[in-house]
Amino acid sequence: MDCKSKKKIINRFRRIEGQIRGLQKLVEGEAPCIDILTQVSAVTAAVKKAGTEVIHVYIDQCMAETSGKPEAQRTQKMEEFQRALSRYIDMA
User: Fold this and answer.
1) How far apart are CA 42 and CA 50, in angstroms?
2) Quick one: DSSP state of residue 58?
3) Sign of the torsion formed by the C-alpha atoms of 54, 59, 64 and 65
4) Selected residue with higher pLDDT from 50 and 72
5) Most-buried pick from 21, 24, 42, 72 (CB within 10 A)?
6) Contact 86, 79 (CB under 8 A)
7) What is the Cα–Cα distance from 7 to 75, expressed in whole angstroms?
8) pLDDT score recorded for residue 5
9) How far apart are CA 64 and CA 61, in angstroms?
10) What are the distances in angstroms from CA 16 to CA 30, 42, 58?
């Protein structure tokens, strides 16, 4: 993963980490359930967006690394990616 992509993804996860801490404070402070659910929804959307960014980076960088490689290696990488993508989609 290149430095720019890595930094972008790490920053997303740091924001998500802050959102999670905010959720903990809402629960500890006995905030209304509607407020908590609203923030859970925001965290969920942020995690999905981070996952989508990882997918884009993988397609752009990791799959490009397989060009020129034997068919078996390309197929193996694609199968690994499809399994990971299936887990990501099932999360949604």
Assistant:
1) 12
2) I
3) positive
4) 50
5) 42
6) no
7) 29
8) 87
9) 5
10) 21, 9, 21
Per-residue confidence band for 92, with pLDDT thresholds at 50, 70 and 90: low
Spatial distance between the Cα atoms of 11 and 16, rounded to a whole number of angstroms: 9
- Residue 6 has phi, psi (to 5 degrees) of -60, -45
**What's the full length of the chain, in residues?**
92
| Residue extents of the structural domains in the chain | 3-91
Q: 8: pLDDT confidence band, cut at 50, 70 and 90? A: very high
Ramachandran angles phi, psi of 60, nearest 5°? -65, -45
| Identity at 33, one-letter amino acid code | C
Enter the CATH code of domain 3-91: 1.20.58.1000
| Six token digits for residue 66 | 């397989």
Residues 81, 58 contacting (CB under 8 angstroms): yes
